[in-house]
Amino acid sequence: MSVANPYERDNYTYSYIPGGNNAPQVGVDDDPVNADNPDAKDRFVLRDEHQDTISKVYYAHNSAVPLLAPPPQDWKGCVYARWASTAKPFEWDEGAARPYDLNVDQSNAADVEDGIVMNYGPKNLDWVGWMPMGEEGEPQAGNNRCDLSRLTELGHECTPCLDSGIHRLSTSKADAVSVVQGLEAIGSVYTNIPQGLTWAWRVLSDAEPFTEGSSVSAKYSGYERDRALVLLTDGANTTRAGDAYNRGMNEQYERNERLLEVAGKIKDEDILIYTVQFANGSGSLASLMKNTATKPDAPFYNYAPSSDDLKASFRAVANNLSTLRLAK
């Protein structure tokens, strides 16, 4: 059975700023989908192979993530966060401080929904998978091969895929240590905290694309299980053109609001959140991390200005976790 494809231009209207370079040349009161304006209609035609409905998903050889469109052959790329506006096209108030209703977009976008989502939101977006980030080797300076950039008619490249992927849940300490030791800091000033927290949540869940949590559940059937994650950051939320939100929520305070909303969803599932603020002594970051954590004090919130403090913070988290027991 076919489902609606959320990857349509009218689901990304938050990128259209009145008077901006990519603003449609139609009136605010016009509906571009139905308007008698060929330019407006062309703007909302799905690009290339992207259909208005989806009858199947695709898998690349190296990815467990279901994809909404066929990736290039031998694709080794990454995927976007599942984000789309669910507000109506051009639904903004010109007299308001902002040109679109951010609260509508934030509360209805699919990145805060875990697992397979059918008939989602007021526009009935069907999130049965993710979208490939772009062509192999993206970003390619000057080529603008970034799918989401072209979708929203913005002339910038995708941000690079991460060098390290997600390690699935495992009972092997040696595997976990090996993964951590393989991580390498690079000279970048970009920190997308809500996206990282969202993927951590997905790893802990029972739903696709990571289902290892369900095997843990089955092993201890009849017991109540505790789930926990640790969020470590040395920076404040920042934005970059071509990232997964593609200029949606492009102000730091908007990303902070998104982080708190994601954290709220996680805590609603009784998942414990420990936060560690490393090196960065910002009071605003401390406030954000305290509000993100299960509780605003140790061992759930930890400030670690040095490497020794960082080790002590993780010991405190481990000690707190060790007190958790399976119980009937």
Shape: globular
Quote the beta fraction: 5-15%
Cα separation of the termini: 41 Å
| Backbone CA Rg | 21 Å
CATH architecture of the largest domain: 3-Layer(aba) Sandwich
Mean pLDDT: 75
Mind describing the biggest β-sheet?
3 strands, parallel
**How many β-strand stretches?**
7
**Which segments are poorly predicted (pLDDT under 50) over 5 or more consecutive residues?**
13-47, 88-100
Main β-sheet, spatial strand arrangement = 5-6-7
Question: What is the string of helix and strand elements?
Answer: EHEHEEHHHHEHEHEH
Helix content: 25-40%
What is the CATH topology assignment of the largest domain? Rossmann fold
Q: How many helical elements?
A: 9
Could you outline the blueprint of secondary structure elements for this entry?
Elements: E1 3-4, H1 38-43, E2 53-54, H2 102-108, E3 117-120, E4 125-127, H3 147-151, H4 173-182, H5 193-204, H6 212-219, E5 227-233, H7 252-268, E6 271-278, H8 283-292, E7 301-304, H9 307-322
Parallel strand pairs: 5-6, 6-7
Antiparallel strand pairs: 1-2, 3-4
Describe the overall structure.
The protein is built from nine helices and seven strands. With 328 residues, the protein is an alpha/beta fold. The chain folds into two domains: 161 residues, no CATH class; 167 residues, 3-Layer(aba) Sandwich (Rossmann fold). The chain has a three-stranded parallel sheet with strand order 5-6-7, sandwiched between helices. The protein has a two-stranded antiparallel ribbon with strand order 1-2. Helix 5 packs parallel to helix 7. The longest helix has 17 residues. It is globular. The relative contact order is 0.11.
